[in-house]
Amino acid sequence: MGAQAPATAERPTRAATPATLFLAFSQMALSGFGGVMPFAYRTIVERRRWYTPAEFAEMLAFGQVLPGPSICNVAVMIGWKQCGLGGALAALAGMLLGPSVAVVLLGALYEHFEHVPRVAHALGGMSAVAAGLIIATALNMGFGLFRDRTAPQAIPGVQAALLALAFGAVGIAHWPMLMVIGVLGPLAVLLAWWRSA
Amino acid sequence: MIAADRHGSPLWPLVVQLAMLSMTAIGGGIVMLAPEVHRIVVEAHPWITDQQFAAAYAIAQAAPGPNMLYVTLIGWQIAGIAGAALATLAVVVPPVALMLVLLRIGHRRSPGTLGRTIRLGIAPLSVGMLLAAGWILARASDTDWRSGLITAATALLMLRTRVNPIWLIGAGALFGIAGFV
Q1: How far apart are CA B67 and CA A99, in angstroms?
Q2: Is B138 inside any structural domain?
Q3: Do residue A34 and residue B61 have CB atoms under 8 angstroms apart?
């Protein structure tokens, strides 16, 4: 871990209390319009220097392999490493408390003004955009998958087929996602394992 | 607001199903599970409408914070403040508990080759399901060719430029107000 840090980098200063963690993560979450991850990286690595870029990347990877929202997993990991259980819970609360109050307030405003045609129209435009954002994120991830040269065991044809099957099962056939993961997941992992063996 | 179905309050069934779902959200969190949440709260039960689901999703995207908080709004739509709090906890607590257990037993070192193989294998499925999430949301919110055009233009801009998505959300709102959708 530490060996990968650039020699010139200042060592991260690790002096956080649950209170500072709560405030720091609240601030990141409340600035995170359209996604928290870029703000988290900027604050944790570049501003507060709690972790090096390599350490952050490692935590993010771990957060993605485990279930749950990766940004919450990262918050819990950082809080834990900084000051144990209290730190983990404080970081997580910071990540969720302010934004969930904000989202419910916005939802209440919306319900109040739902029948004002202008608000309904604005929301219509916003959800059309939101759909486009997800589609673009998926496509970006898909392109990244096929470009990943560090994964020799990935066969483009097999990957494309798995991707299409998952899309069709969930998006067209409306299968429960758990069923899709249960059926296609072991198959996909076996294929990746067989190629790497 | 939609009332409870004839089996009583939908709050606990919602919490239980979300909690089970949360443990399957590998590689992308509950945002990836939007189709499944949609299936539960719109298709399998008459808890909220397609429009409410789309509105919750759009508001959570527009609001600051993790995008998974659309679940908070859905909980609020179904059962008020208690629903908001419990739906959020249902999605967050099980994975966080697992994470804490792993940290506790000192498993925090690199997940190793097995973890990498699993991640590599699952990745195409994650992408396919995320694409399905976008598709289902587009089907719910694109009522005519003009909103379809907005969805397509958004995707293109995201792929081709580094524009901050919040500006696109704002532009979508303006297009809507201008009567384009």
Answers
A1: 10
A2: no
A3: yes
Residue B38 to chain A, least CA–CA distance (Å): 10
Tokens 């259980």, located at residue: A85
- Return the residue matching tokens 């604005």: A122
- Tell whether B135 is covered by a domain: no
Structure tokens at B78: 């179904």
Asked whether residue B151 is assigned to any structural domain, the reply reads no
Dihedrals phi, psi of A7, to nearest 5 degrees: -60, -30
Tell which of B77, B91, B118, B120 to mutate to test the A interface (max A CBs under 10 Å): B120
B84 contact A CB<8A: yes
CA angle A113, B31, A170 (to 5 degrees): 110
Asked if residue B147 is part of any domain, the answer here is no
- In the block, which residue shows the tokens 């279930």? A67
- Cα A76 from chain centre: 13
pLDDT digits (tens, 9 = 90+) for A137-173: 788 778 877 776 665 556 788 889 999 999 999 899 9
CA geometry: angle A29, A32, A38, nearest 5 deg: 105
Cα of first residue to Cα of last residue in chain A, in angstroms, is 27
What is the interface pTM, i.e. ipTM, of the complex? 0.73
**Which amino acid makes up residue B143?**
T
Contact B24 A67 (CB under 8 A): yes
Domain that residue B76 falls in: 11-122
